[in-house]
Q: What sequence folds into this?
């Protein structure tokens, strides 16, 4: 399974989600590769923090717009059960490359109207990729949702007409996600609260969507 966290808008939670997913899959005992395709290098920085603290992490590598070439990610991915690609915003070349190798594209989208408007450009990239690769699956992930607000409550309805399935799982706007990144941990390994539950549910949903696997968890709670 190659998951590409894609989308043209910055600040939608791509890196946060990519790291959390990769860390959770790794904690379940899978061989996981996290590809940092964002020049900002936040996933690589997270891995460096984890290494300094001697925390176990997935394998993390940096790749760019040539990652789709047979000698790059398609070859490297054979050594892993799951690959998570963190794409940069506003870099069509990198996102197109990721969509050429991905099993599923996950488009994180915030709950505000401007987030839904910005999703349209990302949808164009996905549809263009699906013309070449009809087997590419694509889904929308509601992210940074503030609980008990009118915007949060109406976000799913606002995206209903986007043309892509919307995952049942959504990620809340929670400080634990940023604290976990700073600690060199996945959020599900950092805390035992709602953020951890969200990431585990998201991992289960993606596994079921792509591979038909049910939950395969091992205890990883606590700091």
A:
């Amino acid at each position: 399974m190659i998951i590409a966290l894609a989308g043209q808008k910055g600040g939608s939670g791509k890196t946060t989600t990519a790291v959390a997913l990769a860390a959770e899959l790794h904690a379940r005992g899978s061989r996981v590769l996290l590809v940092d395709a964002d020049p900002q290098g936040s996933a690589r920085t997270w891995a460096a923090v984890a290494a300094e603290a001697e925390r176990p992490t997935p394998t993390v590598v940096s790749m760019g717009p040539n990652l789709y070439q047979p000698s790059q990610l398609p070859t490297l991915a054979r050594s892993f059960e799951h690959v998570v690609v963190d794409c940069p915003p506003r870099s069509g070349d990198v996102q197109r490359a990721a969509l050429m190798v991905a099993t599923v594209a996950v488009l994180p989208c915030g709950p505000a109207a401007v987030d839904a408007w910005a999703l349209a450009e990302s949808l164009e990239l996905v549809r263009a990729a699906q013309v070449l690769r009809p087997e590419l699956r694509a889904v929308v992930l509601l992210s940074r949702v503030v609980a008990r607000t009118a915007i949060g409550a109406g976000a799913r309805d606002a995206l209903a007409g986007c043309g892509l399935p919307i995952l049942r799982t959504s990620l809340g706007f929670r400080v634990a996600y940023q604290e976990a990144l700073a600690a060199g941990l996945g959020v599900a390994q950092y805390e035992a609260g709602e953020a951890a539950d969200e990431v585990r549910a998201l991992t289960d949903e993606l596994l079921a969507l792509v591979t038909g696997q049910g939950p395969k968890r091992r205890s990883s709670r606590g700091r």
